[in-house]
Amino acid sequence: MESQTPAPAIPSVRASQFVILGLRVLTSIFLVVSLAILLSNVLSGDQDHKIHFYDYVPYRYMAAAIVIGIAYSVFQTVVAVIRIRRENHRSMLLDFYGDKVISNVVATGAVAGFVMTAQLQKQWGDIVKIDIVHKYIKRSHAADGLVFLAFICTFILSVLSSYALPKKVY
Fold it and tell me: Which of 43, 97, 118, 128 could staple 136 via S-S, CB 3.0–4.6 A?
């Protein structure tokens, strides 16, 4: 007599909805905190000269990507809560295409931030060792890293929406 191994448990639709909701909330948190760091990160040498994120195009792009990501993530979080409450699973195409686009937008925003921070470190050279400049660079890296973590969440959401799509289309 052969022993049968039980089939692996497939997560229920409800459980996957809570995972998706959690990832959307996590994405929103990462992006909001990153935006707060980016907006508050100011390097002031003297009273006349201050360096803000908007002085550099890549940081402005990253800020725009963050704002777009926050808007989409908050919208999709609300939609996910409504779906859980109503047990409604419609508009999977919006999830599928929206998650793909936002994942790419957030990824390019993170890359722009990392590249700009690395360029500033290289450009400023030895003055990076000064405490106030070092703090500015560290905070920039923190903002870049949080956007990258948000990208990881959106990438996972993108994969999950890819898996959910065939179930609803066919």
Answer: 43
pLDDT digits (tens, 9 = 90+) for 13-67: 667 778 888 999 999 999 999 999 999 888 776 666 777 777 889 999 999 999 9
Query: Tell me, what amino acid is at 132?
Result: I
Residue pointed to by tokens 């179930």: 167
Beta bridge pairs of residue 43: 51
- Which helix (H) or strand (E) segment holds residue 37: the answer is helix 13-40
Domain interval for residue 81: 16-38+52-164
Tokens representing residue 144 in the block: 């870049």
Sign of the alpha-carbon torsion through 26, 160, 97, 78: negative
Tell whether 60 is covered by a domain.
yes
9 domain-assigned: no
101 Cβ contact list (under 8 Å, min separation 6): none
Least confident among 40-44, 88-92, 103-107, 139-143: 88-92
Q: What is the DSSP string of 39-98?
A: HH--EESSSS-EE-GGGSHHHHHHHHHHHHHHHHHHHHHHHHHHHHHHT----HHHHHHH
CA distance 42 to 46: 12
